[in-house]
Write a structure and sequence with these properties.
The complex is a heterodimer of chains A (about 160) and B (about 450). Chain A has about 160 residues and is of the alpha+beta class. Chain A has five helices and four strands. In chain A, helix 2 runs antiparallel to helix 3. Chain B is about 75% helix and about 0% strand. Chain B contains 16 helices and no strands. The two termini of chain B are about 10 Å apart. Classes of the chains: A alpha+beta (about 160), B mainly alpha (about 450).
């Protein structure tokens, strides 16, 4: 079962979290607290996206010039400087798309099922920090007591049980 | 450091709930002034739309553009708006990468300028096309005559770079907005039709440490991507002119000259917007005099930088005394372009420098910035019309005056920009709530 505790401010939440280090805890806040070291593919994705965009941009410019089929009297049909500029734009385009896509995927966005009830989310908007702790029935009352002692307000425990 | 301290000091007074309440107030409360402003802007836009329809019906002949001046007010506006778009995202990205604490209350207002200016600028190209329904010819598709667009044309470079920059700027504006949209979703009881808007735009944001960490990393990556992109966009705009052999356009310094001018006008636009937001939404506690002081310092730096580039450009032409360039230069200094040229110099140097050199109060900075915005529009005007009205063949010299149609459409475009900005401030927090709180806590 889960207990939802809402702390008035980040500092009291942080103190309580120090005591809950071993427990299965999920934190929800309206501003970044300590940013954890997360494993992420954002940077490699941006580089790969940039590479794909570069290839796409170069191909677009070169193939469009070839498709035009102009008679150039032996002069090159594909001009390198313009291809370079379109390749640059394509690189940025690919990197932006890959960054955005990877963020949506890794951060679990586009999942519209919200874990917290509306009143708890409203409190988070006003600066509170919500902590959801996974516990057992036997430990529930003592944990609730400890959290309340640390300054938390226990929210609708049953909904999360 | 001092600004960081000031921000922190005032923010300590304002607790987190007060910050949320203050910054959400414009979204939940709608005063009469909003409706009056929206009404006036709507009327100007409707008139401009009618004028555009009139121009489409009767043809481009109702505009003043004619041989040899085939680019007039519309292209001036295009270059001007692309320039305005420069500073928002670029300043925000530079300040974010350097972790400047004072950026927090100003970044969103600046980034929004970029996005809306990028929407207005290319719109002027569509209006200038005349037969706007054929605009897709610039896309890499065969047109009706079986021809493919030529990527050797700088116009196509522009098309590619501006669209990429627009995509990047929208993403860069949107990512830091996600937590704040979630705040609007959770903290307000809005009407039924507005609720789904915030629910969808928040993308299911919950504010877990993992989400925060990934979001910050993505924003930093975007900041790195967006900086060279921003520089490339105005460089490419300058190449639209620089790659031709027209007098006073075919210049090697046009790229950096345009980039400096764009950042210069962009900073001024950001200051004007921040001042109006501060006064109209009563955000004096968030947009503090120190922010205007810092931005004013940046603006005066770019005053001198722009002045240096202008001097270098004009001195070279004057000293060379080349027969095709001299009439263009002389036309600007003493001829029909002289009133515009000297007004530009007054607005970009004589007015802002004394105002900003000594007392960079919010009002002084605002007045100086307003002058710079006007001056930089005139700069684009003198560059474009000054050269086109004095082509190489002297029999073809001809002056150009915009007609009521062009001026109406131009007014409508400015109204459209303000309208978009007004709507943005009405629907979204114009000061980033979470970034402000984060700065206050640190």
């Amino acid at each position: 079962m889960k207990i939802l505790a809402v702390f008035r401010d980040p500092d009291s939440a942080r103190k309580a979290l120090e005591h809950l280090a071993a427990a299965d805890v999920e934190v929800y806040s309206g501003e970044p607290l300590e940013l954890p070291q997360v494993r992420s593919r954002l940077a490699p994705a941006a580089i790969l996206g940039g590479l794909a965009g570069a290839i796409g941009g170069a191909a677009l410019a070169a193939l469009t010039a070839r498709t035009m089929g102009l008679y150039t009297g032996g002069m090159p049909l594909v001009a390198y400087a313009p291809v370079g500029i379109i390749t640059f734009a394509g690189t940025a385009f690919g990197a932006i798309g890959a960054t955005l896509g990877t963020l949506l995927w890794e951060a679990g966005l586009l999942n519209f099922r919200l874990e917290l009830p509306k009143d708890a989310r409203k409190e988070i908007s006003a600066g509170a920090v919500a902590v959801v702790v996974e516990t057992t029935e036997s430990q529930r009352s003592s944990l609730e007591r400890d959290l309340a002692h640390a300054g938390a307000r226990i929210h609708a425990t049953d909904e999360h049980g | 450091m001092q600004v960081e301290a000031n921000t922190t000091a005032s923010a300590l007074v304002l607790d987190a709930s007060r910050i949320t309440e203050d910054l959400l107030r414009p979204i939940v409360e709608t005063g009469n002034r909003f409706w009056i402003a929206a009404g006036i802007l709507g009327a100007l836009m409707a008139w401009a739309l009618f004028c555009w329809g009139y121009q489409i019906y009767w043809g481009l002949g109702v505009a003043g553009i004619n041989r040899p001046v085939m680019w007039g007010v519309y292209i001036t506006n295009f270059v001007f708006w692309i320039g305005i778009s420069h500073a928002g995202t670029l300043i925000s990205a530079i300040l974010r990468v350097t972790n400047a604490g004072w950026r927090r209350p100003i970044t969103r207002a600046a980034e929004a300028i970029t996005v809306f200016a990028l929407m207005i600028g290319p719109m002027m190209i569509l209006i200038d096309l005349g037969r706007v329904w054929l605009f897709y010819w610039v896309a890499p598709l065969p047109n009706l005559r079986g021809l493919w667009p030529n990527f050797r044309s700088p116009l196509l470079w522009d098309f590619s770079c501006i669209n990429t920059y627009l995509l990047g700027s929208i993403t860069y504006l949107y990512l830091p907005m996600i937590p704040d949209i979630a705040t609007v979703r959770d903290a307000t009881d809005l009407s039924r039709w507005r609720r789904p808007l915030y629910r969808w735009l928040a993308l299911g944001w919950q504010g877990t440490p993992r989400q925060w960490a990934l979001l910050e990393r993505a924003i930093n990556i975007m900041a790195i991507i967006i900086m060279p992109l921003a520089v490339s966009v105005h460089t490419v705009v300058s190449w639209v002119f620089g790659m031709t052999l027209n007098p006073m356009w075919h210049s090697t310094i046009f790229g950096p000259y345009f980039v400096v001018g764009a950042i210069f006008s962009g900073i001024a636009a950001v200051i004007v917007a921040l001042y109006v937001i501060r006064q109209s939404l009563h955000l004096e506690a968030y947009l503090e005099p120190e922010h205007f002081n810092k931005l004013g310092l940046l603006l005066v730096t770019f005053c001198f930088l722009w002045g240096y580039f202008t001097f270098a450009e004009y001195l070279t032409v004057w000293y060379g005394h080349e027969s095709h360039e001299w009439p263009v230069l002389w036309g600007k200094l003493t001829g029909p372009m002289a009133p515009y040229f000297w007004t530009m110099m007054a607005c970009c140097l004589l007015i802002p420098v004394p105002l900003l050199a000594f007392r960079r109060t919010p009002f002084n900075t605002f007045v100086a910035s307003l002058a710079v915005v006007v001056g930089m529009w005139l700069e684009r005007w003198t560059i474009i019309v000054g050269t086109l009205s004095r082509p190489r063949l002297t029999f073809n010299w001809h002056w150009y005056r915009p007609t009521w149609v062009e001026l109406s459409i131009m007014t409508g475009a400015f109204a459209y920009f303000v309208f978009l900005y007004l709507m943005f401030a009405k629907f979204f927090p114009i000061v980033s709530i979470w970034e402000y709180k984060e700065g206050a806590r640190r």
